[in-house]
Specification:
Structural class: mainly beta
Helix content: under 10%
Largest sheet: 8 strands, parallel
Radius of gyration: 16 Å
């Protein structure tokens, strides 16, 4: 009988310039600081990230389905083409983060900041944003079908004719969103 693969944890570590792209059994990152490292194309479903900082981490093409991020800073990371569906983000910072072509289907963002994030071509279908800062986010070409915004700051967030909004353009303008050509 084959045994289950061992699940790894990163706890109270400071890690710089390390390639984790071969690690597919990571279960938790807690109270850690990771900078200029890569998790490109890894499959890390159900991972928990708490009280940690990721600076300029490459998470391109990662599969992070049903994961939880709490009290963490993911600023300036690259999540391009990643699958972050059914995730939970609580008090997590994603400022200036590359989220192009990323899937956030049915994910929840509670008290998060995504200010200046790039969400072009992202799939946000069914996502919920509660008390979150989405100022100056680029939503051009994104799918925002059935997205819920509750008490969020959307001032300066941009969208275009190809963006599927969950409301009409008048409502978007009232929230401070900007239509770009």
């Amino acid at each position: 009988m084959a045994s289950a693969p061992k699940k790894y944890q990163i706890y109270q570590k400071k890690i710089n310039n390390l390639d984790f792209s071969h690690v597919n059994a990571l279960k938790m990152v807690r109270s850690s600081y990771l900078v200029d490292s890569s998790f490109e194309a890894t499959n890390m479903e159900n991972i928990k990230v708490r009280h940690s900082t990721f600076k300029k981490i490459n998470l391109k093409k990662c599969i992070l389905i049903r994961s939880r991020f709490a009290h963490s800073d993911l600023e300036q990371c690259n999540f391009e083409y990643a699958n972050l569906s059914q995730n939970s983000f609580f008090r997590t910072a994603l400022r200036k983060t590359n989220l192009q072509c990323t899937s956030f289907r049915n994910s929840t963002f509670n008290e998060c900041t995504l200010a200046h994030a790039d969400l072009r071509w992202a799939n946000l279908e069914g996502a919920a944003f509660v008390k979150s800062n989405l100022s100056k986010v680029n939503f051009c070409n994104s799918n925002m079908t059935n997205v819920k915004f509750m008490k969020c700051n959307l001032k300066g967030a941009t969208y275009n004719i190809h963006t599927v909004l969950p409301f009409n353009q008048e409502h978007a303008s009232g929230l401070g969103m900007v239509f770009v050509h």
